[in-house]
Structure formats: structure tokens, C-alpha cells
Design goal:
With 102 residues, the protein is an alpha+beta fold. It is built from three helices and four strands, in the order H-H-H-E-E-E-E. The strands form two sheets. It has a two-stranded antiparallel sheet with strand order 1-4. A two-stranded antiparallel ribbon has the order 2-3. The longest helix has 22 residues, at 27-48.
């Protein structure tokens, strides 16, 4: 995830969408979904505050990936034993802002 998030940090939102669309990593799809959510949240905030909104003027101001709580599972092993598996999760934060505001 961090490899993909480093590609879009500080970029224009439309450029970030293009980067994520053509990236082969599995995390790119999830990060694109989070980016769409951040843009939608910015639009709702602008409508609520009666401000002008243009999605083309937005850029990614902050993009962070932190480790989440691991899911602890077990799988069968030889001779009746079980071996632990840690399924790692992550927390993704993406903040967008207009070029005028910064």
C-alpha cells in the first residue's frame, strides 16, 4: 500500500486517478476508492458551507498508510498441529484541498 500511496502524494486529483488506474498493484483499486470518497467529502463540505467547488482544482495534500489490527487465524499443519497466520490490515488516510486554499 505504501508504494502506491507514495505515487499520488502531492499530485493533482485527476493525475492521481490516472496513476491509480494504470497501476498493477492490488492496493491501487482500494486507494482509488478512498480517493473518490475524499473528493466526495470535499464536495459535500463545500455545499454545506456554500463555497464554490471545482473537482479539477483539488490535489492530494496528505496521504498516509498506517498499520491496522492484524487478524489472527490458524491453519492446519503436519501431525495435528496448527500454525498461526497474521492477516495484516491497514488504515488509509487521504486528504484533498483546493489549490487556492493552500
Amino acid at each position: 500500500m505504501r508504494l502506491v500511496i507514495d505515487l499520488i502524494r502531492g499530485k493533482d486529483v485527476n493525475e492521481a486517478y490516472a496513476i491509480l488506474k494504470f497501476n498493477k498493484k492490488l492496493a491501487a483499486k482500494q486507494i482509488a476508492k478512498t480517493l473518490r470518497s475524499a473528493v466526495a467529502n470535499a464536495e459535500q463540505k463545500a455545499l454545506r458551507d456554500n463555497e464554490r467547488f471545482d473537482a479539477d482544482e483539488l490535489f492530494v495534500t496528505r496521504a498516509i498508510v498506517n498499520g491496522g489490527a492484524p487478524l489472527k487465524r490458524f491453519t492446519a499443519a503436519a501431525q495435528g498441529r496448527a500454525t498461526p497466520i497474521k492477516k495484516r490490515t491497514s488504515h488509509v488516510e487521504i486528504a484533498v484541498d483546493s489549490k487556492e486554499a493552500s
